[in-house]
Amino acid sequence: MKINKLLNNIKSIKIEFIYLIIGLAWGTTMVFLTPPFQVADETHHYYKSASIAEHNFICESSDGILLSADKANFPHLMQVGPVRAKESQYINSYSNPNEEGLISARMSICYSLPFGHIIAGAGLFIGDLFTDNELVSFYFGRMANLLFATILTYYSIKRIPYGKRILFVFALLPMTLFQYASYSYDAIHISLFIFYLAYVLDILHKSKQPNNTQLTVIGLLITVISNIKIGYYPLFLSIFLLPFNWKNKRKVFKYFLILILTNILLILIRSKVLGNGLITYELANPIEQIKYILTHPIDFSAIIVNTFISEIRVLYYGIISRLGWGGDYYLMPFDYYQFTMFPLMFIFTKKEKTSLTKKTRIILLLSGLLTILLVSIALYAINTQLYSPSIRGLVGRYFTLPLLLIFFALYQFNFKEFFNKHSYIMPLIIFFSLIRIIYVTIQSTFDRFY
C-alpha cells in the first residue's frame, strides 16, 4: 500500500517540475564532472564569454580578440587530453600566474554576435568579482548557462499545451545536458528555441490571432536565436503556424518586412564591426561547391544520402550522447535499444488532444527537413573538399532542433487512418523498393565482374 501511495504521489508531480529537479541535479554534476575545455569548441566559447566579461566586443582580427593574459592563457594551463583526465592533470595543472597586459586570443567565433555568450559571460564576470582564481570563475560561467537553459526549458514545458513529454525527452538527452552545462552557445540556442516553439504552439492551441505583444516577443526570439547560430533559418518557417489575420495583409506584410530587415541589418553590423570571420576548410572552395550543388542537385542528394548512411552510427550517437572530443566511444547494442525505444514509448503512448492539423504538421516537417538540408549544404560548402563523396564534419548534435520539429509533426498522427485513406501509398513504396533492389543487384554484379 505504501508503495502504491508513493507511486501515486510521484505521478501527481507535474512533468516540468520533474524535469527541473533532474536537469539541475544532473546538469550540475556534468558542470563539475566534465573537465574544463573538453566540450566541443569550449575554448572558443570561453574566449567569447571572457571578452564579454571584460567588456571587449570588438575583434582585433577576424579570428582574434584582446583578452587579459590570465584569461587568454587559462585554457592552455588546463589541457587534460582528449580522452581521459588523469587526477594529477585535472587538479595540479592549474596555476594562477597573475600575468598583466593583454594577449590576442584566437577563436573561430569572434565574428559572432554576443547573444549566445552573454549568460556565460555574465557568470564569468560575477565569478571574477568574488575571486582571482580563473578555475573558480570558469565554473561560475558554466553554472550560469546551466541555470538559464534549465529554468527556461522548465517554463517551456510548463507553457506548451501538448507534447510536454517530447520537450522532456529532448531536454534530458545526455548531449543536450552536456551542452547546457558548458560554455557552448548551444545551451542558449536550444533552450531559447524550445521556449519559442512552446510559445508559438500555445498561441496556436488557443486559436487566437497573436496580439502585438506576442508578435514582438516572437520577433525578438527569432532575431536572437537566428543570430546565435547561422544556418538554422528554416526552423522559423514554423512562424506560419500562427493564425495570422491574412485579411489585413498590409499589417502582416509590414511585420515580416520589419523582421527580415532587422535580421539583415544585424548581419551587416556584424560584418562591418566584427568582420566576416567565415572559417573554411583549407581544401574547400565555397563558391565552386555552391555551383556544383546548383548544377548537380541529384548528385548532391546522393552525397547527402551516402553521408547519412555511412555515418549513421556517429550521427545517432552524436544526437544522443557522444560527449567530449574524439574517441570511438560507441554504445553497446542494448544501449542503442534503450536510448531509442524507451523515449519513443514514453512520448507516443500518451494520448492527448492536440491542435496539430495536416497543415501544421506539414509546416513542422518541412521546417525540420529544410534545416537538415541547409546545415548539410553549409558544411559541404565550407568544410568539405570539392567533389568529395561525403560531407565532412557532420555531427549529430546539429540535428537536435530539426528532429524536435519532426517529432512534433508526427506526434499523435493517426498513421492507420492515413494509410487506409491513401491505400495506394504502401504498394508504391513496395514497388519502388523492389525496383531499387533489382537495380542495385544488377549494378553491383556488373561492377564486380566487368
TrEMBL record:
Membrane spanning residue stretches: 17-39, 136-155, 162-181, 187-205, 217-240, 252-269, 290-309, 329-349, 361-382, 394-411, 423-442
Pfam family, one: DUF2142
UniProtKB keywords: Membrane, Transmembrane, Transmembrane helix
InterPro entries xref list: DUF2142_membrane
Extent of the signal sequence: none
The protein's name in its UniProt record: DUF2142 domain-containing protein
Lineage of source species: Bacteria, Candidatus Dojkabacteria
